[in-house]
Amino acid sequence: MNNWKKRPDIVYSTNPDYHYNDEENTEEETSPKEKQLLRISLDKRNRKGKAVTLVTGFAGSDNDLQELGRMLKTKCGVGGSVKEGEIIIQGDHREKALGILQKEGYTKSRII
């Protein structure tokens, strides 16, 4: 792919020293575990009456969020997913998820 196709907002620059800032490569840095304020809640809305545990408030990269979600699902022994910055765990596992997160170092986690 041509380099100009990646930057549709830049048409032409007369500056020979101009370097385009590629904003796509900047990934959000993950905050330390002890500073993360994760909120654990139970949700039944729009889920056909089935309860799911939601973990919200994660500040960091998508890869780290995916990894945390994978670890929680494995340790709870259930399925789930990670969508739009939320970890969704099937069933009511609020207390278990809180214990797991606190053992992992997420000390500011709480159930709401």
Q: Overview of this structure, please?
A:
The protein is α+β, with helices and mostly antiparallel strands and 112 residues long. It has a single domain (29-111), classed as Translation Initiation Factor Eif1 (2-Layer Sandwich), CATH 3.30.780.10. It is 22% helix and 19% strand. The protein contains two helices and five strands, in the order E-E-H-E-E-H-E. The protein has helices spanning 62-76, 94-103; strands spanning 39-43, 52-56, 80-83, 86-90, 110-111. A five-stranded mixed beta sheet has the order 3-4-2-1-5, covered by helices on one side. The N and C termini lie far apart (48 Å).
How do the helices and strands line up, and which of them pair or pack?
Layout: E1 39-43, E2 52-56, H1 62-76, E3 80-83, E4 86-90, H2 94-103, E5 110-111
* Total domains: 1
Question: What is the terminal-to-terminal distance?
Answer: 48 Å
Under CATH, the topology is which?
A: Translation Initiation Factor Eif1
In N-to-C order, the SSE pattern is: EEHEEHE
The first-level CATH class name: Alpha Beta
| Poorly predicted spans | none
Per DSSP E runs of 2 or more residues, the count of β-strands stands at: 5
Percentage of residues in DSSP E strands: 15-25%
